[in-house]
Amino acid sequence: MGLRDASGPYFGEYGGRFVPESLIEALDELTDAYARAKADPAFSAELVRLGATYTGRPSIITEVPRFAEHAGGARVILKREDLNHTGSHKINNVLGQALLTQRIGKTRVIAETGAGQHGVATATAAALLGMECVIYMGEVDTERQALNVARMRLLGAEVVPVTAGSRTLKDAINEAMRDWVTNVATTNYIFGTVAGPHPFPAMVRDFQKVIGDEARQQVLDLTGRLPDAVAACVGGGSNAIGIFDAFLDDDGVALYGFEAAGDGADTPRHAATITKGRPGVLHGARSYLLQDDDGQTIESHSISAGLDYPGVGPEHAWLADLGRVRYLPVTDAEAMDAMRLLARTEGIIPAIESAHALAGSIGLGRELGRDGVVLVNLSGRGDKDMETAGAWFDILDEK
Amino acid sequence: MSAVGAAIDARKAAGSGALIGYLPVGFPDLATSVDAAVAIAENGVDVIELGLPYSDPVMDGPVIQKATQTALAAGFRLSHAFDAVQQITSRTRVPVVLMTYGNPVMQYGVDRFADDLLAAGGAGLITPDLTPDAATEWLGAAERTGLDRIFLAAPSSTDTRLAMIAEKSRGFVYAASTMGITGVRSQVDSAARTLVSRLRSAAAERVCVGLGISTAQQVREVLEYADGAIVGSALVSALDAGGVAELARTASALALGTRLV
Q: Which residues carry this modification: N6-(pyridoxal phosphate)lysine (chain A) (predicted)?
């Protein structure tokens, strides 16, 4: 039996549903509605139509030979999710869940966001479908991603800065869950990644696997064969599982998830959950987790807001234990170098999140050499990161 | 029978119902939190619900979040909870249950946690993010140790789930008065009355109502139909504002709601 399309609630010993009783009914409703939608050709037809006419699917692939000269001369191919409407892969999942919200008959959506990409995508879908929208975002993130806060507000969403805890993505999820517990009768929670309680990990994966389904065929068409390696960045892990899924049962394709190592995986300041964490429960699911001996969550650190999360999706934890996917750390400095390298060699500015996958692909290319083919999920574009990049590279004029 | 069950039944036999008081361990510091728990026991609280500070408390509102995060910042460790239970139970006969999110228990080791809680004199656990169907290991440990296992029921719970919750709970069932999180509310939701009645139909042995209860009047209203009323944020606010003395006055005032009119 293959590894693709595991349906949850458990992926091996990971996943499940560790949530307040108040949410069980809503999660059951969502699970049932999704099962019915999945079986309804009209639902998938509507998703395909929105993909083609709104998102810009299929997203193209781009071979990057000048970048690849720095990666051992292997063929490096980017899957261009950065070209999607709203600038990242997040829209794929959001449109699916927003359509589902309509089917359930709810009129208000909430979401958490880290980098702001999922918040922007949710605000976009809410505008498109005429739904009320509230986005929870850690206060630290509202500062480092101010441009995305403005985008969400322009789209008509209310953005609530979360001041609890570490004031980042993890606390935004806590606050969104509190909202959901309180307003569940009218509200659907559009969760942004493949973490959280069942059915989110499997459902979000299903909405993202279009990335890998397209890319697998596109690489075959371009090169006549499957890639040797597929690379993606992993925070919660939605873009990674989206591109991995199509290759899970292709034994010859090595899969690599690159986690944010911040200052270094051996320093206290990182977000390398699988590399350095151990199994525990956070945000409704059992998975790898950065935590102390008492089970208190440890704050993560990454220059990339979208990877700054102390948990990871349960399917990734399972794939890590099985050895099917290797999860490796990439530091802030390595990611920023890769961001600049892609900009200067190919004229493409990646999101700092995606730059972690690019940094990882350099090492993979060098291992594989000139005959190798590496597929990288370029999950988002870097426009939102210009303030961070400006400060990092010291390229802003003094005022 | 469980000490918690006995404490509630004693109040019911007297024609009233129980007052259950929540306070976090380690707030504002460990020694004061022990004194605070003893103080509410001496001022009319029948069961102490001792909250275990946790980094990601999704069922808690701002008041309790602030208190538990303060305790964590001040260096709270899980082992302090067992020390606190031991000290409290050596000073009062009022039973103590711990309110804890699941992950700290799992990381400590479910069986080890149950053993240490029992050894410290604790009576059981309230688990806000562990429903009976997600708590297999804890159900086993509770069976082995005789500790009470108090699960939550919500207005949105189906009849099937209420039956499961009633069957798996021991001590009492914690009926959430409203769809929401902990915190002071001006009115106790009418959903509470319906939920208690549904839980009784589901054969729950005892049902106590919590979330949003902060005055003696609300305690009295709830005890018209429930076996106990659970107060949290109002006690934590009193402790925060005026120390143990103010807390004792608040507990005493709330306990007026358990007196017969």
A: 90
Cβ contact (<8 Å) for B176 and A296? no
8 Å CB contact between A353 and A307: yes
Residue where a domain stops, chosen among A181, A200, A219: A200
**Preceding omega of B155 cis (within 30 degrees of 0):** no
Nearest CB to B152 within list A21, A164, A289: A21
pLDDT of residue A327: 98
| pLDDT attached to residue B259 | 86
Here the tokens at position A246 are 């199509």
CB atoms within 10 A of CB B195: 26
- Among A18, A294, A297, A298, most B C-beta atoms within 10 A, so best to mutate, is A294
Residues A83 and A99 in one domain: no
Among residues 42-61 of chain B, which lie with CB inside 8 Å of chain A?
Answer: 54-59, 61
- CATH number, domain of A214, equals 3.40.50.1100
Give the mean model confidence (pLDDT) for residues B185-201.
92
Range of the domain at A218: 57-87+208-393
Does A177 contact B152 at a Cβ distance shorter than 8 Å? no
Those residues of chain A whose CB sits closer than 8 Å to some CB in chain B are 16-22, 24-26, 164-165, 170-171, 174, 177-178, 181-185, 280-284, 289, 291, 293-297
Question: Pairing relation of β-strands A61-63 and A75-80?
Answer: antiparallel
Residue count (chain B): 261
Q: What is the pLDDT of residues A196-221, one digit of tens each?
A: 999 999 999 999 999 999 999 999 99
